[in-house]
Specification:
There is one protein chain. The longest helix has 19 residues, at about 545-565. Helix 2 links the parallel strand 2 (about 55-60) and strand 3 (about 80). This protein is of the alpha/beta class. Helix 10 packs antiparallel against helix 11 (about 340-355), helix 13 packs antiparallel against helix 15 (about 440-455) and helix 15 packs parallel to helix 17. The protein is about 35% helix and about 15% strand. The protein contains 24 helices and 24 strands. The protein is globular.
């Protein structure tokens, strides 16, 4: 780990210091001592010569702390901070105009672990049903903003839990506020966190201090009066001071040499802390109260994990010690328990994640996976395995499987198992929708991606994943979504099979003055069974259809295709470039007297496609852009376009600035929205998302419910689900989403003279006239 560079002038050091002690909306979360820790850090800075004006001290004090703060009036400057917005303002506005060499951030509050192991800091206005918070990773990214003067070195210290959401006994998920998207620069950052994923950061009520903060501040006050701590020595001290009173400390480092690593200390010790054993022994006493179940568990452990050395009648303490130290012992135990007592199995799994038990898979699961790989005559090429590794990484951590001697030979079984064992360490978080249920862990995501790559192994790997997911208590819907994403994922690696689709090729028909309905469209239906080839549907219309007629035609075509493929297809609507604003998803196919509507965008996952541009050269360039950008659609780079981008060439520049970006989200109001949608369309963005009816520019978090940064292939389904919820509760679902999903490798039908179909003279020459 590289050290901090010298800072000659303390006036070049700035800091944001946060202490959240009181939670007014839920007094049960009050955290006595958080203000004291923040003040102690403030004193260390001031003794080192940092000017008072350089420190933003943001406190949410309890009554006792408020009395002490009032007594210090005139000696320090602090701000009473009761909302998330005020905390975020310290970073978005409070640093504007400041410049320096070194920035410190100290933050003491409650915290939780979000999806994808994201560390979330609970703000003072949080409550159990409204967990208002900020994301530490998002904060670190924002502090890399290129308009921030100096601060090339940044040290961030977070004393907060990383507990799973069920620790708060509420079903609602976190309400994360995102910092603005910024252009980033290279910044050297060091971050030290008080707890590993799933763990609680202890608070010492006698000291009125966090255990982590007390150990850290003891060292800083003694060894770093010059404000330039030896970071390696600081880490070593925290390691030495915390093991007996707190579960292992997780240290996440973006080292000052630009690399990134994660360290977890202490490692798996021969003798786990007695508090860990006692807590687990108590859970075992409850889980194994049935004598028959206990005997079965002991026998299974003896066979599968002989290294546990349990003996004939082991005590709960002895079993707990084996589960904490013997690889795969906990998984083997849960293998038996979950068939008889799901609640007890879930409790054991949660304790296992908290205490870092070795091995997510049981010996049987690990062995059967190796045997499956060994039975396949041809494993996927190394390049595709590496692509699967990258796709399965939850936070993009840089790790690749061991290299092969000759890449053309493909990976060996040992190398695939090395990938599996790496991913076992990433156990996954908890489901917000289903509290207490685990999200799909990385190892299962990886095997699902391998299943998509190796058809001969697909059924076997799917059955293996079903068994593992059931034992781990993984949410069934989560596994189904990951599986669908995995099956669609190989599209990004080259030509491959895709999901079935129904494509409706629409164009506005000439208006007949004698017709009561003015929304008439020529409609040619196409189907793709999943092989990638479009063929015209059996049923066609030579007369223009109303919007209701189009929905009914799609309904019949979907029904026929589903009967053939046994899968629900995606519905694609092919429109002329200047008609993508057409609200086709809201078209209703029901009769006026029907009790229920039949809304196109609610009945099926629906996406828009764009017909070729009239200018052949522009269309060629657009297709090239689609091909290049779609290959990278699995990264989460999103270009957000607001009202300011509609002026001059700003939007064009933003869309062209990052050649990897495959997603454009238009947040502009109606004056600039159409122009920006058309710009993204013409520049070959395969994913364009906007709100069709927003009366003005929408807030930054407007599209969060649709998760545009998540898997592209799942976006039509997420939008369909959102539209259904909007029917149920419109006030809570204000977005009217429209999504253009283009693909250079999923062909469009040939260009037809659609507008001529209503002309009787044209019908005799039309290939559709006899259908």
């Amino acid at each position: 780990m590289a050290g901090l560079r010298a800072v000659d002038d303390p006036a070049r050091v700035h800091a944001v210091v946060v202490g959240v002690e009181r939670y007014p909306r839920h007094s049960g979360w009050d955290l006595p001592g958080a203000v004291d820790d923040a003040l102690r850090f403030h004193r260390w800075l001031r003794k080192g010569g940092v000017p008072e004006a350089n420190v933003q001290l943001l406190l949410a004090p309890g009554e006792d702390s408020r009395v002490r703060l009032d007594a210090l009036a005139g000696e320090l400057t602090w701000r009473q901070t009761w909302t998330r917005d005020l905390l975020m303002d310290a970073f978005t506005e409070g640093l504007d105009g400041r410049t320096g060499d070194l920035l410190y951030v100290f933050w003491g509050s409650h915290g939780v672990l979000g999806q994808g192991d994201r560390r979330l800091l609970l703000c003072p206005d949080a409550s159990p049903k409204d967990k208002r918070c900020v994301d530490t990773a998002n904060l670190m990214e924002y502090l890399q903003r290129d308009d921030l003067g100096g601060f090339g070195q940044q040290v961030l210290l977070f004393d907060a839990c990383a507990a799973f959401l069920e620790h708060h006994n509420q079903s609602t998920g976190p309400a994360v506020a995102g910092f603005p998207t910024v252009r980033r620069r290279r910044v050297e950052q060091f971050a030290l966190c008080a707890a590993a994923p799933g763990q609680v950061a202890e608070n010492d009520p006698a000291l009125r201090s966090g255990v982590f903060s007390n150990a850290m501040l003891d060292w800083l006050e003694t060894n770093a009066a010059d404000l330039r701590p030896d970071l390696a020595a600081l880490v070593a001290h925290v390691r030495a001071e915390t093991p007996e009173v707190q579960t292992p400390v997780s240290i996440e480092v973006r080292a000052l040499d630009g690399s990134r690593e994660q360290l977890v200390w202490p490692g798996r010790a021969p003798l786990p802390p007695s508090t860990d054993r006692s807590r687990l022994a108590l859970a075992l006493h409850d889980a194994l109260g049935d004598a028959d179940l206990r005997a079965r568990c002991v026998e299974h452990l003896a066979v599968q994990c002989p290294g546990a050395d349990l003996g004939a009648c082991p005590s709960d303490e002895r079993i707990a010690h084996a589960l904490l130290t013997v690889e795969r012992a906990m998984a083997a135990l849960v293998e038996v328990v979950h068939t008889r007592n799901r609640r007890a199995a879930d409790q054991l799994l949660a304790l296992g994640r908290t205490h870092g038990v070795p091995g997510l898979l049981s010996p049987l699961e690990h062995r059967s996976l190796r045997e499956s790989f060994g039975r396949v005559p041809q494993l996927p090429p190394t390049a595709r395995v590496i692509a699967a590794v990258r796709a399965a990484q939850p936070l993009g951590k840089a790790w690749l499987p061991p290299p092969t001697a000759q890449e053309r030979d493909g990976p060996s079984v040992d190398q695939l198992m090395a990938c599996v064992e790496h991913f076992e360490e990433l156990t996954g978080g908890q489901s917000v929708a289903h509290p207490g249920r685990q999200l799909v862990p990385a190892v299962v995501r990886f095997t699902e991606l391998l299943a998509a790559l190796v058809p001969a192994l697909r059924r076997e790997l799917h059955e293996w994943a079903d068994r593992v997911a059931h034992r781990l208590g993984v949410d069934d819907g989560g596994l189904a979504e990951r599986r669908a994403e995995a099956l669609a994922w190989p599209d990004s690696l080259g030509p491959a099979a895709c999901l079935p689709r129904v494509l409706a090729q629409l164009d506005a028909a000439p208006v007949d003055p004698a017709d009561d309905e003015d929304d008439r469209y020529t409609c040619v239906m196409w189907v793709d069974t999943g092989a990638g080839d479009l063929v015209q549907a059996a049923e066609q219309s030579i007369e223009p259809l109303s919007s209701r007629g189009v929905v009914r035609r799609i309904k019949r075509t979907v029904k026929l295709l589903r009967a053939e493929t046994e899968e629900t297809p995606v519905v694609e609507i092919l429109l002329q470039p200047d008609a993508v604003q057409l609200p086709v998803d809201a078209w209703n196919g029901a009769d006026d007297g029907d009790a229920l509507p039949y809304l196109l965008g609610v009945e099926w996952a629906t996406a828009l496609r764009c017909a070729p541009l009239a200018d052949a050269e522009q269309e060629e360039q657009r297709q090239e852009g689609l091909k290049n950008r779609r290959a990278g659609r699995h990264n989460d780079t999103v270009v957000f376009l607001d009202d300011g981008h509609a002026k001059g060439y700003t939007g064009y520049g933003a869309l062209m600035a990052d050649v990897r970006a495959a997603r454009a989200v238009v947040r502009a109001g109606p004056d600039g929205r159409d122009r920006l949608v058309q710009a993204a369309l013409r520049l070959g963005y395969p994913v364009v998302l906007w709100d069709r009816q927003a009366p003005s520019q929408v807030p930054d978090a407007h599209f969060d419910a649709l998760s545009p940064e998540r898997a592209v292939d799942g976006l039509p389904w997420r939008i369909r689900d959102y539209r259904a919820q909007a029917c149920m509760n419109p006030a809570a679902h204000p977005v009217c989403p429209a999504a253009l999903l283009e693909s250079a490798d999923r062909p469009l039908p040939p260009v037809l003279s659609l507008t001529g179909l209503a002309d009787p003279a044209a019908r005799s020459d039309s290939p559709e006239a006899t259908r």
